[in-house]
Amino acid sequence: MKTGKRIAAGAVTVVLLASLTACGGMSKQGRNTAIGAGAGAVGGAVLTGGSTAGTLGGAAIGGIVGHEASK
Fold first, then answer.
1. What is the structure's pLDDT at 34?
2. Which of 71, 7, 68, 66 is nearest to 31 (CA)?
3. What is the pLDDT of residues 24-69, one digit of tens each?
4. Strands (E), 1-71
5. Are 41 and 68 in contact (CB under 8 A)?
6. How much is the pTM?
7. Is 44 within 8 Å of 16 (Cβ atoms)?
């Protein structure tokens, strides 16, 4: 099952990087919020073994940190 989790983490990373290319017209604060949410989601998923609650919690915390860091 570890291989499946690695593939899933790789797929999430690729989707995250691809979606960041759409950030060209965003403000700096919006871009940092999106990056923080994506990184938090990946971190939350990794730390909790892929649980939905961990992924969503990580995304929420990462988004808040990214939003506040750009003030």
1. 84
2. 66
3. 678 888 888 888 888 888 888 888 887 888 888 989 999 999 889 8
4. none
5. no
6. 0.66
7. no
